[in-house]
TrEMBL record:
It catalyses: D-threo-isocitrate = glyoxylate + succinate. PANTHER family: BIFUNCTIONAL GLYOXYLATE CYCLE PROTEIN (PTHR21631:SF3), ISOCITRATE LYASE/MALATE SYNTHASE (PTHR21631). InterPro entries: ICL/PEPM, Isocitrate_lyase, Pyrv/PenolPyrv_kinase-like_dom, Pyrv_kinase-like_dom_sf. This is Isocitrase.
Amino acid sequence: MTAYQDDIDAIEALKQETGSSWDAINPESVARMRAQNRFRTGLQIAQYTADIMRKDMAEYDADSSVYTQSLGVWHGFIGQQKLISIKKHLKTTNKRYLYLSGWMVAALRSEFGPLPDQSMHEKTAVPALIEELYTFLRQADARELDLLFSQLDAARAAGDETSIELIQTQIDNYETHVVPIIADIDAGFGNPEATYLLAKKMIEAGACALQIENQVSDEKQCGHQDGKVTVPHEDFIAKINAVRYAFLELGIDNGVIVSRTDSLGAGLTQKLAVSRAPGDLGDQYNSFLDVEEIPESGLSDGDVVIKRDGKLVRPKRLPSNLFQFRAGTGEERCVLDSITSLQNGADLLWIETEKPHIAQIAGMMNAVRKVIPNAKLVYNNSPSFNWTTSFRQQTYDAFVEAGKDVSAYDRSKLMGVEYDDTELAQVADENIRTFQRDSSAQAGIFHHLITLPTYHTAALSTDDLAKGYFADQGMLAYVKGVQRREIREGVATVKHQNMAGSDIGDNHKEYFAGDSALKAGGENNTMNQF
């Protein structure tokens, strides 16, 4: 027996118990509606997707070639279309997630309008987007199952037993569009209690994985901007604990915490760490400070000093009242941050880097893995990187090291189109193509994501349409660039009424009102042209 048939039988039995007042209720229609609404709460989604992530993490530990991927999305429809496309082209959503980017929430979802990525947007916008994404993914399930139900009805009407069996099998083994979301909670939007309260809302909306970073909450900056300020480990651990308590309170015992360190690009700290004994965590954090040795007689009013190796030293304090770290300590701090987070409740790491360089990433992860062998990384394949220039320069340097002639290339101008067909560019492009596979094998990257790709694709596709439509191409710009491609490439949105739920609504009307239902999908519906 399948869940679908079990529901039919259960409703039939209930109908018999209830009596004639339920004569109009069709048990199979109820079973269909239940199949189309598999997930009834966000917590059900959070548990289902947490189980998926934990399984995927274990499989990656056994085989680094089975890494996972996601694209950042900023609207439910964009997330829905991404998963529909994955199922269409790749036949399964296995190992594919969604990423919710705080950057895109700030830039696209705030009531204030576009904002920089500095935790200035409404914190409620984050759980609202999670809920919206899962609403659209569940609607994708409902739509796709509705198409199968219609095909089943047609096969039954035709007496086609082979098709009936095939379609019923597809219904019974249906793969949902609902996948894990890794959701950005920034630096926690306040103190640990604020982090806990927001984490609960995000989990209740369906998030199984929350990514939190070690910046000062009220000084938070985008990971690819200057001016980042980190917090001592004890402060950050308190927020990791807050997120874990939120998961446990809501019963998602295997919820995933992604601990992000911005220390590679963060040269500042807001405060000194508390140290209770030489070599403890606070002492290690303070050891990276840029200091100057002073005699006790040289102290001035308001000076802050610490004792290091038996001597008094004064941490260098900026006019902003922030303290700075020694230059060149970023990688060491990232390693310490990562080890500390994993030892204090985090499940996955995120090291924000300034370029996509496998050797750099692997160097830090190898140091972490000496202490925690199964440490795994979530890595931002960031649009803030100039991938073309970076990989062409890496390839140029490799050519030089190998003794190859590079006289035809100017390393400072490798972005130029004149290099596109050269051997160097082809090698660089191949290294870009295999970057995710290679770095997952060499640098412990479990999950690859692009934070804000759909921000760029929305702008690019709009630019393509606008430049033709408002010029001499007129409607041909839309027909040739959009509609004709949708039809020929099988993009479901060409039937936009169906995508928006019109056919589902028609079928529900028929459930509710039978032959007297007024339906939108008749012969005069222009969608029949497609």
